Amino acid sequence: MKDEILHHIRYSLGKDAEHSSVYDWRIALSLALRDRMVDHWYRSTRETYASNAKRVYYLSLEFLMGRLVEDMAANLGLDREARHAIEALGQDYEEIVHDEPDAALGNGGLGRLAACFMDSLATLGIPAYGYGIRYEHGLFEQKFSDGKQVETAETWLTQRHAWEFERPEVKYRIQFGGHVEHHEGKARWISSETVLATAYDTPVIGWKGTWGNTLRLWSAKAPGAFDLESFNRGDYLAAGRSEALARTISRVLYPDDTTDAGKQLRLKQEYFFTAASLMDLMRRYLSDHDDLRALPDHVAIQLNDTHPAIAGPELVRQLVDVHGLEMPEAIEIVRNCLGYTNHTLLPEALEKWHVGLMAYVLPRHLEIIRAIDHDHRERHPGSPRIIEHDHVQMGELAFIMAHKVNGVSALHSELVKETVFEDLHKIHPTRIINQTNGITPRRWLYTCNQPLSDLITREIGDGWVADLEQLKALNEKSGDKAFLAEFQAAKRANKVQLAQWIRQTCGTEVNPDAMFDVQIKRIHEYKRQLMNILETVALWNEIRDNPGGDWTPRVKIFGGKAAPGYHVAKQIIHLINDVATRINNDPVTGDLLKVVYPPNYNVTMAENLIPAADLSEQISTAGKEASGTGNMKFALNGALTIGTLDGANVEIREHVGAENFFLFGLTAQEVQERRLQHGFARAAIEASPRLSRVLGQIVDGVFCPDEVTRYHELVGNLYDHDYFLVTCDFDSYFDAQRRVDVAYRSKTGWAAMALKNTANMGWFSSDRTIQGYARDIWHAGPVNTGGMEKIA
Ligand code: C3B
Q1: Residues with catalytic annotation?
Q2: pLDDT tens digit string along 667-688?
């Protein structure tokens, strides 16, 4: 390893060891690790071709990969060796790891799920490609200026991305605009704009290196030669114009989480990567097959939300316009290839494109969508229309073009049947199924939580890393005082580290013996960070009323970004920061209560925070969080959950035991009913002296003396609308928090409950999720299992 790193310092970076920077060492280490991946990767590709195995294609506008060094090294079984080699070279391994920017090509849960799936697909040895966009700028960086969120461009690609292989020979012409001509029943799309899609491949190697798949990301380039004529005329802007325009498509990740961006550029991005991916997989298929009717036997395509839903009409277009199939047969073939995952019920997140825009950008696809709509309604009279109120409804399109539609938790999948796709579900009663989300244990326990990981491995061996249900063996230890003490010591070590990091990042001293209470996720009204900060103020009041009381010291930790255009979410961020300033400087509450909000939450920060958490906040309005995956990461790492019956919380509670979970709040059913009661919010506030007092303080400017009216709109909305029922769940939440306080005071009691969480979270491995997709949707399995079981 040492020699391999030195080789790259010299021959890839052109440096000598004495003059190498941290950056140089990191790139050299990454390249050395990448070298070790290549043989596994080639072997996997060869075996896939040789066995004629079915391939899985996961189409996703987002892959939130995070840093790769530690994860890649761990999966290759080289984590110890890499560290030793770097140390033997006189370098600081931690510093090198920390030098890597996050690959932040995603917004939140949906993008991180795609990344976990890539890890599980490789670990299970299922031949698969992830297809997405190689954004020049990932998710924006967040800073706080006087407590307010400020966004700046993310710039990961200004450095060399050592993991990828550029594939300049893999390129496709992607068309936009123009018009369609029809001759003798054949359609010809005469486009008005062409962009080149070129490929960049990152190998993804599974646990123990048994299998390697590919993450293929597309970058947009201008198709023509450089405009030398304009350049020579001195018109440099004109000369660069077509290149700049083309590149716009892969320039930035849209920062909207669960809202429909509704922009022409977004539609172009979606079509760009979907079309390139389908052209690529068709080329691969046709290189050793000639019967297009057998496509579904060899190709499974998963649509990660509706973002790639244009795949239905695009693949139909390729089969009909390019390969000469009849439309109805093409539709059937495509349907047998496609699966669609729904990730949200929020109406504002369900993509809809105006037919005018669709006709302008993708005129041929609009025709095909009309044909699909017609075909479906002929077969199923009374079916909902794909085009409604002059908008193409991408959810309906995806549903109709997929043979399976899945939700991401048991509750969510039932709600999908009852709400968004109620009518389509009646027509196709077996199409909607559930696949509860999961998380990869490699990143989310093995690498991110070394103290706990080592303890578990010492106790039960390391089989759990690829077979997480083995953690069940730890259940026997929940009465073992000595083991519980070690389990607690692991948590404490993580908390001490985090306290140090908080001091450096936020300048706030926190006591590692206080309860670390963490809410990290995108800032959204339905996730109710607002309820959390209101409860914080209520607790502050109560401690101040009785400073000598028997309080359980707490550190409230927040993390998360708001979409730049989401006004209310940004107000909530500002409020949390304002409250933090007031409380952290209060000598009365002192160490009993602290509030910290480190900026720029990302995958790396999650890896630091989760292992150190005692309490996990999963407090969304019931029926709104499709699944959640952070909830799983916390419980796996031995945090207890305070949560509502929402998303996967329901299943987590079933697995870890109701007695090891702090439940509160209205159910999804009750939420629906409560909304119908006129003036429910005002009534709830008036019935709660505690909440009234908190809201009164905010309105009076206790937390913003410089601008007393700052939160009047926010609080006013709570009285008059409160769509997410913060007011109705507030008292129940406050009470649950006091039960948490009591439980935390018994150190071993708490440790036993926490251990029960870790021990019973095995089912939430994304390996289990992927096995479910493979069995129920893709009908695909591993080629060479490297000792792993075949999927039934
Ligand atoms: C998220 C949902 O909000 C989460 O509940 C869910 O766990 C994840 O997807 C993964 O399924 N989601 C998201 O991050 N972005 C969207 N546009 C829609 C859903």
Answers
A1: 343, 521-522, 527, 629, 633
A2: 999 999 999 999 999 999 999 9
